[in-house]
Recover the amino acids of this structure.
């Protein structure tokens, strides 16, 4: 993990089995780390879409093979991340290849739905059009995994993946 982008005011938190987490002092805290997830990091690799300007600073935290992960307590407490998020982060480490495959398959399967949306809303000045067909090689240059976000919910961890993408600059995927 590249800590040069971590604010000097952020405090480290050591959690067994995870890289150091960093969070700001105060009442609201989202902890950040970079998990070594080489399979999932393909969505951030050399063939992936370039980092969005708004993510440039945070993007440097994850080195090659790493993915930025945020752990945020829903109640706004600045304390240590909820145990369910810690467990979710450990599971990500254990299941990197499975997660990567599931995400890739889900995005590839979503092409018909995305095309239908595009066909209903495309404007004459839209520069980008989705390809007719896509596979892994076609998809990876069109997306970038900005971060994985972990939140505690009563039924277990909520895992969100934040992607920027070529077909939806404003909202991502």
């Amino acid at each position: 993990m590249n800590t040069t982008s971590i604010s000097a005011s952020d405090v480290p938190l050591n959690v067994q089995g995870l890289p150091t987490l960093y969070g700001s002092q105060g009442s609201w805290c989202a902890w950040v780390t970079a998990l070594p997830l080489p399979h999932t990091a393909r969505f951030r690799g050399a063939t992936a879409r370039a980092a969005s300007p708004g993510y440039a600073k945070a993007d440097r935290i994850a080195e090659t093979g790493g993915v930025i992960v945020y752990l945020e307590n829903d109640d706004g407490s600045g304390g240590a991340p909820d145990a369910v998020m810690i467990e979710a982060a450990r599971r990500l480490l254990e299941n990197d290849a499975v997660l990567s495959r599931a995400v890739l398959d889900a995005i590839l399967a979503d092409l018909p739905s995305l095309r239908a949306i595009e066909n209903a809303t495309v404007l004459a000045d839209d520069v980008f059009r989705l390809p007719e067909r896509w596979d892994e090689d076609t998809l990876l240059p069109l997306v970038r995994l900005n971060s994985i976000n972990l939140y505690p919910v009563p039924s277990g961890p909520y895992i969100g993946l934040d992607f920027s993408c070529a077909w939806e600059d404003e909202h991502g995927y």
